[in-house]
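ZP: hey, is the glutamic acid complex queued? I don't see it on the tracker
AM: it wasn't, my bad. submitting now with these inputs:
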Amino acid sequence: MSDKIRVRYAPSPTGYPHVGNIRTALFNWLFARHHGGSFIVRIEDTDVARTVEGAVEAILDGLRWLGIDWDEGPEVGGKFGPYVQSQRLDKYKAAAKKLIEQGDAYYCYCTPERLDEMRNEQMKNKQPPGYDRRCRDLSVPESTLKWMSGMKRVVRFRTPLAGKTAFHDIIRGDVSFENSTIDDFVIIKSDGFPTYHLASIVDDHEMEITHVLRAEEWLSSTPRHLMLYKAMGYKPPEFAHLPMLLGTDRSKLSKRHGSVSIIEYKEQGYLPEAMLNFLSLLGWSLDGKTELMTVKEIIKNFTLGRVNSTGAIFNIEKLDWMNGVYIRDLKIDDFSQRVVPFLERDLPPDVKRPLSLDYIKKIAPLVQERVKKLNEIAELTEFFFIDNLEYDPNILVAKKTTLETTKVILETALKGLDELPEFSEESLETVLRPMAEALAVKTGQLFGTLRSATTGSEVAPPLFQTMAVLGKERCMKRIKEALAVLDKAKDKTAG
Ligand code: GLU
């Protein structure tokens, strides 16, 4: 075995990639990159019934989105391939055969019905659950006869009945399990597929994995794996079980705490670099206080010595804050480009596509400071893209003014704007600011009415910049439409 560090991320394609699972991938990757080792992706698809179509793609997309690249695995290959367990069945069969031949495993013919009955009985008698080892001592002829009669069978590991299995976990320290608490677990299922336990140890050995970094929930599987390593005559890797992810209420992170698939975060408009920074702090820290770090800094400083054993809290408010910081930090061209797919997706269908990047570049500075996620942008900027606004007369009339005054404001503004040779932020300000005094209204009232008339909304980016981007023609047209709406409203009150 080489001295080089080799770690793996071994997802089961049974659903969309949960953030906790991606955190495991990230920590493996950071560990490999910090030590100049290899990061391997292996697809553990031996649970045929639970395999979900499209899940492998989603998992790989999630990694790619975050910039987590793999040295060996699906798509890139490698000298230990294939990296998909369903294509490696012969290796698990050979391992099971060896274990049977040396007496470390045996065929079990117990039917699912019998196992159900056994479990019910155990529950009734308050006994610990686990296989009662009925087939453990079947003789070879007895076993063969059952097989010949057409019975289905699985292969079980012959767990030692006494003694302890102990190991050192890099994060948790010394851990020990009584062998008597571990039953004769299945290693090959009746469909001929291996269970996770067998496939995992065969592959970790064959792929020369040096360190297994995985979620805490697998800690109790580790003694089984160590027993298998021993029986196979393999040297086990080192283990590090990563802390569990918790919601802010300190219960295990789940759907209840909001979205959990990495793809959903992508779709909501979190930036991958913010997400990576945030995920890296779920269980690891540089010094207990530094929050914002580039991926380079994280790689440089990532050691298992700074991974906690206690649960890590997933705080979405912190993620939102961090994402806002990363968004504000983007150069305007970069920000504009990242906004494009969100606008393409979220603007109303009648807005003509493809959108103009040059136009988006003009709008982008007006919203960059104001959003925490890119999916907020379409709603904030929709009025820049649609042709016809729908006015609510109530928002056109600013607080403490009348419909009449509002009309005067809009009519006067129209006159002023028409005269303007160029429609820039500065020239708009020069004309509009003194207008309030001339009309004896507050600037807030004047600007409020103009904002509502040109954007259709009371909340919008800074007025003069907004109007400059909209352009003279569109602003004048909108103000005229707003006036028409006010006229109609007046007729109604009069009538
Ligand atoms: N396939 C397992 C999972 O889905 C891998 C566990 C391990 O890393 O050993 O998490």
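AM: back. The chain has 20 helices and eleven strands.
ZP: great, adding it to the tracker
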